[in-house]
Amino acid sequence: MGYDTVHTAHDRSTSRSPYLHLSPISNLPIEILVLISRYAERGTPAPLVGSTLNSLSRVSRSWRAIALGTPGLWTAICDISVPYVDTLLGRSGNRPLRIVRMMEHGLRFPEYMSLVSPHIQTLG
What we know:
The protein is mostly helical. It has helices at residues 3-14, 30-42, 46-56, 61-68, 82-92, 109-116; strands spanning 76-78, 98-100. A two-stranded parallel ribbon has the order 1-2. α1 (3-14) runs antiparallel to α4, α2 packs antiparallel against α3 and α5 packs parallel to α6. It starts with a helix and ends in an 8-residue tail after the last helix. Residues 25-78 form the F-box domain.
């Protein structure tokens, strides 16, 4: 996702809220918000990355627009559930994926492979 696309998503989200200017976080540059999200993603165990990013996307409309508009944040794919894996694959775009297979829980291997195999060319 390009710089202009992230800015466009941010502009759309901030134009809807007349009270957004009251929040100090709204004054942070978009690049800082992306760095915060990437830092949170890198420091989180793979099975928890999605929930961490989902939490960050609930801070404000602008954070949500930025998080959802930055496919590189959604590339850690864990095998928790079919809808969750589908959501992450959609949000990751065509970015290289970091796939983690949890043996003790999650999807059965054939089911998991049927979800991720169409994206095999994007594995990094």
